[in-house]
Specification:
This protein is α+β, with helices and mostly antiparallel strands. The protein has six helices and four strands, in the order H-E-E-E-E-H-H-H-H-H. Helices cover 53% and strands 13% of the residues. The chain has a four-stranded antiparallel sheet. Helix 2 packs across helix 3.
Length: 230
């Protein structure tokens, strides 16, 4: 028959030796104790991202054949979602270690997870800054280079440019014509239809029949006209 009390007492003694400063025993019947767990400090660790917590363990009667009760308290730099995720992780690890003293294994796994979370958070900040820098550099490059010219964009621009220039030239010509008073010669030279105007007039004169009233000349002999003296 398994002596659970003895196994639990032996594990507590081992934990006191391993965690002399981190372990706090709150009760011995049942055993209730807390362990301070923190992310590992490495050369690359930014203190602003470091996180820690206390894990309170309570041995149930049949521990270690049943997992202990566990609760994360006093979290530092951890939000509610982090606490929930870490608690679930501890419970999963406990199920994998049923039948053996597991607190040391659970604390080690939790510390590793905290360290990984810190490293991920730091990496994300760095990646976000690098991404932001790339965006700013791309904006600056586009501002400096302008829009890239393709054959299609150039032909579209040229067609629009030619149309605008033609319209501008036409408007300029119309303004010059209306604003400048032309001489008769300039009108003659500008309007080719005037070249034939005199000829047309003569042709029309030849074509018309001039009628003369002969009665006006019937009494010419009665007039007393002086003869020219030679």
């Amino acid at each position: 028959m398994t002596d659970y009390k003895e196994e639990q007492k032996n594990e507590i003694e081992a934990l006191e030796a391993i965690y002399p400063e981190e372990l706090t025993i709150e009760s011995t019947d049942p055993y209730v104790f807390s362990l301070a767990v923190a992310s590992q400090d490495t050369n690359d660790t930014d203190e602003a991202f470091a996180c820690a917590c206390l894990v309170q363990f309570t041995y149930v009667e049949n521990y270690p054949d049943e997992p202990p009760l566990m609760e994360i308290i006093d979290p530092e730099n951890l939000d509610d979602a982090d606490v929930e995720s870490l608690t679930q992780y501890l419970n999963e690890q406990a199920q994998e270690n049923i039948g053996m003293a597991m607190v040391f294994t659970l604390v080690s796994a939790l510390q590793e997870r905290l360290t990984t979370n810190v490293e991920d958070a730091q990496r994300k900040v760095v990646e976000d800054k690098e991404r932001e820098q790339r965006v700013l550099e791309e904006i600056e490059r586009k501002r400096f280079e302008g829009t890239r010219v393709t054959v299609e964009s150039f032909m579209s621009w040229k067609q629009k440019f030619d149309a605008e220039m033609a319209e501008l030239k036409k408007s300029k010509t119309d303004v010059e014509v209306t604003s400048k008073k032309l001489t008769g010669y300039e009108l003659f030279m500008r309007d080719s239809s005037m070249n034939d105007s005199d000829v047309q007039f003569l042709q029309s004169a030849d074509a018309d029949t001039v009628e003369v009233d002969e009665s006006l000349f019937q009494d010419m002999d009665d007039l007393d006209l002086d003869e020219d003296v030679g």
